[in-house]
Structures are given as structure tokens and as C-alpha cells.
Amino acid sequence: MSEIKKKKKIICIGAGASGLFFALNCADENNEVILIDSNSKVGRKMYISGKGRCNITNDCDVKEFIQNVIRNPKFLYSAINRFKPSDTIEFFNSHGCALKTERGKRVFPVSDKAADIIDCLFFEGKRRGVKYLFEKKIDEVYRKDDKFYVKGNAFEYEANKLVIATGGLSYPSTGSTGDGYRFAQNFGHQIVETKSALCPLKIKEKINPEMLKLTLKNVELKAESGNFKKSIFGDLEFLNNAITGPIALSMSSLINRLDEVKLSLDLKPALDENKLDERLLRDIAKNPNKDVRYLLKALLPGEFIDFFIINSGIDPDMILNSLSRDNRLKIVHELKNFKLTYLDLEDISKGIVTSGGVDVSQIDPKTMESKLIKDLYFIGEVLDVDALTGGFNLQIALSTGYACAMAIRVE
User: Fold this and answer.
1) Where are the alpha helices (DSSP H) in 83-139?
2) How close are the terminal C-alpha atoms of the chain, in Å?
3) Which of 66, 104, 218, 253 has the most CB atoms at less than 10 Å from its CB?
């Protein structure tokens, strides 16, 4: 009689994107996968991603994808090549969750409901035999006699392999409270200092109430710090004490480890200073008896004009036919280089992702296995990898989860 092969038992802590995708790809006739989460349901953070629509990936090739990774892009080459954005699109489309591509190659479910992405992952995992354990707050993980033990109040589970997919410190209400960093340190892993990423930027200037519903479209946000210079084109929004929107969020990930950052806005990036000056001269010639405020109404959204006037030092009551060349060029300069006083990043709990985490020099990039502890793995946001906004971070979660699952399955 042939001996029945005993299944390996794998515990994955964290039922976010990386944990869900790892579990459904790892579970088979040889691997019993138990997915543990402190929440009462899976994918809590995914529900709020993409403003509730879940920007699951970006429909770009691997080269462009890597160019959008901020922390440790080289580490991700193997995982992204093994499970590409095109593979993500094919997976969901073929499992009953149709996707669509929007501006910036951002990919969303056709339904515009994050729940459809989450349900697809959850029910496919169930179909493949994943065992889900909810509302399990884990206090301790440790290894003894080649087994891993996961312990909490009134429960303890053991496994042959342990996968940490606990996320970072962003949106702690979704369960991302940094437990994974504590678990990693207990196993001897280094944690790279965590910073806010994809978060609003606090500024000194007072935001007028009417600006809180305003979107500045097609502007350019510029940042400088020493030799660092970067500009990002797109849309900008305002909070009570901060700027947000796609370009501000992306800029936060680029400057979150810099000091003394100078911010400015190009409010008319389609025109250089000469072309903009010519535009002003034409407008002045048509309305010589109007004032500067009237001139600005043709250039800026009405809700933004008072803020622009107060913070640029321009006299709004100057009559256009008496406007000096220097005053006109000052208006041009301010429209192209409108300064904002950067104070700090918004708190890490309000960032979309966390920058920093488990030091990837101690992780095998092909398998996500620890180089320090055999059969211990780290996937997703708990790692020191993060990318710009646009679906890249969720793709990192899926790709690292897939790489880990495939490594365990082939053993």
C-alpha cells in the first residue's frame, strides 16, 4: 500500500490583497492554507482603495511598472516578471470580475465596486480550499522544533510554514497596525524606518473654505531639496491644512525622506513665460479699464483667485492700462512659480501606503522567503517596497503573493 502524502500546513497572517492572492494560489492537494485576520472580513483596506472602486493594477509593461516603484525596484524584478499586470487583468476577467482601463492606464472593475474584486479573491480561495479564520488578534509568533506557532488569546495554531502579509501602518482602522514589523524583529529581521507615502502634504498657507471642493486640473507640482528636483503634472486638491490629489500624493512618496523641501505650482504648464506674457498683453488690450482681479478670472478658477492674490503679493486693484511691465511679469512669474510653504507629511496613518518595512536585503526576491529563517516568508506592504499611485502598489501585493505561493508549491 502506498503511503498517503501528508499535506504541508501553511499559515498566512493578513487577509489583504497579498494574503488573499497568496492563499488561493498556494492551496492545492499538497498544501493546506490557513488565512488568519484580525478583522471580521477579508480585504478591509481594499474596500477604500481607489475611492471605493479599487484600482487593482496598471495596464503597463514591466519596464514602465518598475519605473513607478520608489523603494527597491530591483528587488521586484523577479516577482513582477513572474506575475505581470497583464496577468492580473487576465485573472480577474477570467474569474467573473470584468475590468476596465481608465486614464493613466489605471485598471478598475467595470462595476466600480471594490467589493467585486474582494469577492472574486475570497470565493476563489474558498473554492480552492483555503481555510479562513477571522477576528483572531495574534499576540505572538515563534518557532520551535521546525514548526511555527501563532498564538493569541484562547488560541494557538501550528504550521510548517509561516507567511507574514500584515501590511504597514497606513489606515490602522483596517487592521494595519504594524504587527508584522514586530513579528519580523522577533525573528531577527531589520526594519527600515517607516514613513508616510501617498499622503497629503501639509502646507503653511491658510486654505479658504471655498477651495475645499476645488480641483486644480492639469497643473504642475514642483519640489526641490538640494540636488533633488522633481515635477509632476496632473490634478491637485485642497484640505484644511494640506494639498492632496494625485500629484500631491505621488510627490509625498518622492520627498518623504528629504529635509527642507521647497514646493511650487505651475498653474499654466501648457504655456512658457513668453507665451503667457503674450496672452496677458492680449487680454489687457481687450480690457484696458478693468483691474487685475478681472484679468485673473480668465486664468484661474474663481475659488482660487483670493488664495492666489493673498499668497502672491499681487495688488488685485491695479487698473490694467496702467500696469507696469514689472508688475505684469510678476503676475506671469507667480502663475508659473506659485510658492507653497511645505511643513510636513500628513501622519502615516493617513497615507495610502507605508514606505519602509522589512529590509529586503534579508529576503529572497524570487521566493519572498527569509534569508535568516527557513520557511518564513514576507509579502506585500510589510516589505520595504512602495510605488506611486495608479494601481502599482496593489500589483506589488499580488505579484509578491504569487511568487511566494509558487515557491511553496514547487517544493
Assistant:
1) 85-94, 114-127
2) 24
3) 253
DSSP for residue 382:
G
- pTM of the predicted model as reported, rounded to 2 decimal places: 0.92
List, for residues 297-313, the tens digit of each pLDDT value.
999 999 999 999 999 99
What type of residue is 72? N
196, 351 contact by CB (below 8 A): yes
> Is 228 within 8 Å of 263 (Cβ atoms)?
no
pLDDT at 149 over 70: yes
Is pLDDT of 2 > 70? no
Measured CA distances, 401 to 133, 254, 393 (Å): 19, 25, 12
- Residue 229 burial by CB count (10 A; 0-12/13-18/19+): exposed, middle or buried? exposed
* Ranges of H-type helices in 139-241: 179-186
C-alpha dist (Å) from residue 37 to 19, 32, 42: 10, 17, 7
pLDDT digits (tens, 9 = 90+) for 185-198: 999 999 999 999 99
User: Could you list the residue range(s) of the whole structural domain that residue 178 is in?
Assistant: 8-196+355-409
Nine-digit cell at 321? Answer: 492700462
157 lies in the same domain as 233:
no
Residue 1 pLDDT grade (very low, low, confident, very high; cuts 50, 70, 90): very low
Say which amino acid occupies 356. G
Grid cell digits, residue 361: 536585503
Asked if residue 217 lies in contact with residue 270, where contact means CB atoms within 8 angstroms, the answer is no
d(CA 155, CA 141): 12
Cell numbers at 98, concatenated: 470584468
Quick check: 121 and 45 in contact, CB under 8 A? no
Residue 350 lies in a domain: no
